[in-house]
Write a structure and sequence with these properties.
This protein is an all-beta fold. The protein contains 1 helix and 30 strands. The protein is 2% helix and 35% strand. A 5-stranded mixed beta sheet has the order 1-27-26-25-24. A hairpin with a 5-residue loop joins β28 and β29. The longest helix is centred in the N-terminal third of the chain and has 7 residues.
C-alpha cells in the first residue's frame, strides 16, 4: 500500500507528454485562488517543547479510510521528531492529531532522530520511514507496527547506518516492492562518501533485514562525479524493475545534479547506473535554463516519460523549473523539455487523471510564503498553463502573520484524495510558527 493516493494517481495514467511537441510555459502565471483550510497547526501542545511535533518537512500519505500520516523533524516527547496521524470526524470538519511515535525514546537516540522524509505503508498497515540521524549516529530505517485497534504503535529499527560504505544520513523516503523489500537513498556515505542507493531485504519471518548497496555515487568522473552526487529524493520504479531518481549535485555540467536510472541484471545481483540527464546543459549557474539542483523525486506516466522539478536554474533569474524527460523507443536517449521556467524551486509533482500536474514552491507568491500550483496542458500538449491555486501567508489572525501556513518545504509534495482535494504541509506559519497540515478543495 505504498502511498495509496500517489499510487492511484500515477499507475493508470495514459501518456502525458510528447516531448518533441512540448513548449515551455510563457507569460505570467494565471491565478485562481482556492479557499485553504488548515487542518492542524503544530506546536499546539507542550509549549516550547512542541510535544505534538514541529516544522514538518515532508509530505503526507493517506490510508484507505482517509487518515493522514506524516513526520516532523523536531518536537515530540523527547524533541527528536515525531510520526503523527490526523483523523477526521465523519463530516471531515475537524481533525484530531495523535503522535504515534516520538523519536529519541531510547538512550542516545538509538531508535532514530530527525525524520526529514515522509512515510510508506504496506498492505498490512505498517509504516516505514527514515531518520537522518540517530541509530548508530548516522541515521536509521524504521518500521511502526500497530496493534489491532491501531491505538498503540511499536517502533522497530530495521537498519542503523554506520556512516561508512553502507551510507550516511538518509534524507529521502522509501520505495517498497510487492515482496516487501525496501529501497532508498542516503545523502552521504558509500564507497566515495557521495551517497548511495540501498536495498533492505527481510528474512521470511521479517525478524532480520539485510542491507545491500546497489550503487555508490561518484564512481565515475573523479572529483566532478559525472554519475551524480548527494541523492536527496525518493526512488520510483517501472514495470521492468528499473529504479529512477535524482541527485542534487554532480553531473557533467557545473555540479548541477542528474536524473539517473539503475538497471538490474536478471538475477538482480548487480545494478548498472546510467545518467539520463545532467542539468545545466544549457546556460550556467543561475542561468541554467534547463534547471539545476533537483532536490525532489520523479513521477512516471504510463508511456514511461519522467517528470520532476529543480530547485535552481530554469531561467534568467533562476527560480527552478518543471521538466519532462522523454525516451526514444529503445530508451537509449532521453530528451529534456522545460514545461515551466522560473516556477520551480519546488517539491515533487503529482498528476491527476486529466493529466494536470500539481506541486508547491517553498518561496514566492505575492506574500513570499510559497505557493501551490497547477500545470495544465492544451489539447495538443504543446503548451502548459500555470495556475496558482494558493499563495501562502495570505491570512493573519490575532496579530499572527501567515496564519494559513508558510513555506511548504522542497521535499513536501502534495497528495490528492478521490474527491480531488489536495493535502500538504508547511514548515512554518500559523499561531506557533511551527508549520501546518493544509487542505485545498
Amino acid at each position: 500500500m505504498q502511498n495509496l493516493t500517489l499510487g492511484r494517481l500515477l499507475v493508470p495514467l495514459a501518456a502525458v507528454l510528447a516531448a518533441a511537441t512540448l513548449a515551455p510555459l510563457s507569460g505570467a502565471a494565471a491565478a485562481s485562488l482556492e479557499p485553504e483550510t488548515v487542518l492542524y497547526s503544530f506546536c499546539a501542545r507542550g509549549g516550547k517543547a512542541c510535544t505534538d511535533g514541529a516544522g514538518p518537512l515532508a509530505g503526507l500519505i493517506m490510508d484507505a479510510v482517509g487518515h493522514l500520516y506524516g513526520t516532523t523533524p523536531r518536537g515530540g516527547a523527547h524533541n527528536g521528531g515525531t510520526v503523527f496521524e490526523l483523523t477526521p470526524n465523519t463530516a471531515k470538519t475537524k481533525w484530531t492529531e495523535t503522535v504515534i511515535y516520538s523519536f529519541c525514546a531510547q538512550p542516545a537516540c538509538t531508535d532514530g532522530e530527525l525524520p526529514e522524509a515522509g512515510l510508506v505503508m504496506d498492505a498490512a498497515g505498517h509504516l516505514y520511514g527514515t531518520t537522518f540521524t540517530g541509530g548508530r549516529v548516522k541515521g536509521t530505517v524504521f518500521e511502526l507496527t500497530p496493534n489491532a485497534a491501531k491505538t498503540k504503535w511499536t517502533e522497530t529499527v530495521l537498519y542503523s547506518f554506520s556512516g561508512s560504505t553502507d551510507g550516511l544520513g538518509p534524507v529521502a523516503g522509501l520505495l517498497i516492492n510487492p515482496a516487501g523489500r525496501l529501497y532508498g537513498t542516503t545523502d552521504g556515505g558509500g564507497a566515495r562518501n557521495a551517497g548511495t542507493v540501498f536495498e533492505l531485504a527481510p528474512n521470511a519471518a521479517k525478524t532480520e533485514w539485510t542491507e545491500t548497496i546497489l550503487y555508490s555515487f561518484c564512481s565515475e568522473g573523479g572529483l566532478i562525479c559525472t554519475d551524480g552526487e548527494r541523492p536527496r529524493a525518493r526512488l520510483i520504479t517501472d514495470a521492468s524493475g528499473r529504479r529512477y531518481g535524482t541527485t542534487s549535485l554532480g553531473g557533467a555540467h557545473y555540479n548541477a545534479g542528474v536524473v539517473f536510472e539503475l538497471t538490474p541484471n536478471a538475477a538482480k545481483t548487480k545494478w548498472t547506473e546510467a545518467v539520463l540527464y545532467s542539468f545545466c546543459a544549457r546556460g550556467e549557474g543561475e542561468r541554467c535554463t534547463d534547471g539545476a539542483s533537483p532536490y525532489a523525486g520523479l513521477i512516471m506516466d504510463a508511456s514511461g516519460d519522467l517528470y520532476g522539478t529543480t530547485f535552481g536554474g530554469g531561467g534568467p533569474s533562476g527560480g527552478g523549473s518543471v521538466f519532462a524527460l522523454t525516451p526514444n523507443a529503445a530508451k537509449t536517449k532521453w530528451t529534456q523539455t522545460v514545461l515551466c521556467a522560473s516556477c520551480g524551486g519546488s517539491s515533487g509533482l503529482i498528476m491527476d487523471r486529466a493529466e494536470h500536474l500539481y506541486g508547491t514552491t517553498e518561496i514566492g507568491g505575492p506574500h513570499g510564503g510559497g505557493t501551490v500550483f497547477e500545470l495544465a496542458p492544451n489539447a495538443a500538449k504543446t503548451k502548459w498553463t500555470q495556475t496558482i491555486l494558493y499563495n501562502f501567508c495570505a491570512r493573519s489572525a490575532s496579530g499572527v502573520s501567515c496564519a494559513d501556513g508558510q513555506s511548504p518545504f522542497a521535499y513536501a509534495g502534495l497528495i490528492m484524495d478521490a474527491s480531488g482535494r489536495l493535502y500538504g504541509t508547511t514548515a512554518g506559519g500559523r499561531a506557533h510558527a511551527e508549520g501546518t497540515v493544509f487542505e485545498l478543495p
